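Dear Dr. L.,

I hope this message finds you well. Following up on our conversation about the binding site, I have prepared a predicted three-dimensional model of the protein together with adenosine-5'-diphosphate. For your records, I am including the exact sequence and ligand specification that went into the calculation, followed by the structure tokens. Please feel free to forward this to your student if that is useful.
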Amino acid sequence: AEYTADVVVIGAGGAGMSAAITAAQAGKNVIVLEKTGSMGGNTILSGGAMNAVDDGSEVAKAHDDSVALHIQQTYEGGDEQGNLELVTILCEQAWDGVEWMKELGMGFTGEVFTVTGGLWPRAQRPSDPEGTGFFKAFQSYLDENTTVTMLYNTTANELLVDENGAVCGVKATGKTGNTVTVNATNGVVLATGGFARNVELREKANEETQLWPTLDESIPSTNASGITGDGIIMAEAVGANLIQMGNIQLLPLGDPETGSLSGNIEHAVESRIFVNEQGERFVNEGGRRDEMTLALFEQSNTTMFIVMDSDTYPTGEELNNFGETMNSLVEAGRAYKADTLEELAEQMGVPAETLTATIEEYNRHCVGGDLEGQEDEFGRTLFSDVEGENDGINDAPFYAAKRVPTVHHTMGGVEINANAEVLNANGEVIPGLFAAGEVTGGIHGTNRLGGNALTDIIVFGRIAGASAAEYTR
Ligand code: ADP
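The resulting structure of the complex is given below.
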């Protein structure tokens, strides 16, 4: 089959859908090619937290937060390897991105929290679990506007280039193995996500930086199975520059069987600790994702437990960030629940005395403790701080869940400029080709702040969609 659209988007995750809808809002008709049978990608599997500061607002003031601090933490949190111009755009346009999602009908609770590795309470919490709220909003746009056509079960495998070297379309394979060609009158947006599920590519990339002891198949991933770097490979074939491919992010929060984020019981950084199989804490749980995960690699069986109390889950029927109730996880044997710390320790298989002592020491830093709010021996400064409500780990029932390292996000990829135009190795624009989201590289440096991926895909998805709509060959 052969189709023509003004703008062609490859990949229906958060970046692709943001680009597609932005191009449609600019009056273009759009075709989106998606490998799987539905939209969502990795975005829908994420916790959904989106960092964004409404500069000068009461909420920002209450947390001593600002766009400038968001920029600084993002840049320094990636060891200053990110492109500062892109980091600045990311943070400055984040709040606009939230407002845009709200206009599309998405709900946020209005609460800000610190997501793991987010370093600061600035994550907006969606009203719906995981990333589903984003896609409900995108779908409602599609229901009301006919100018975006979705081609599901269609895998792009080649970018088409015209006689002047401009990208002008995509060749893909449809469900029955048929060839699908989609021509673009305006631009093509690459939004195929990262390569965490491409073991060969991630191992090769890790050799460059050796950030991780290994990234072979023994390390699971949080990602959907189709996240294999297709877009990166296609872009490289038309001359795109790949940057910082070795910057790969792991989380210490994978399900021990599958590596997925499902079963992750934490709700916010402030209310939980990590302990190892000896019942001891081993890292600042409010710190960077790379530092926490590297510390986990040092623990026996590279295994830890998230531990918290009923402040987060008063009845056990509340949902975690992944749409699961605590009680259902306990019933399935994926989490532990007990009325005393001793019983919890027994279920976890860790020494009860050690676990109890660990928690007593931790509680000293929480509200009401003799070291309230003071930095602890691991450098942690984010503690539970709501009196009576979220005041340390001291209210039964207690909860724990086992977790392992898991490959989460690939920060390297296709190089782009501030207009989301793809660049070649000489820093020149490849005409007609735009990219956004995890397929791109060079924004987050060595370590992406938790909560910045949703920001990235909405902000740069919108930029890519607008640029592709404007472009003419
Ligand atoms: P981002 O967070 O950057 O938006 P996601 O992982 O959420 O990335 O989404 C990427 C989407 O791209 C997924 O839905 C994935 O199935 C899709 N995808 C990956 N490779 C291809 C391909 N070759 N053709 C079409 N879609 C693809």
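In brief: The CA atoms of residues 317 and 325 lie 5 Å apart.

With kind regards,
A. P.
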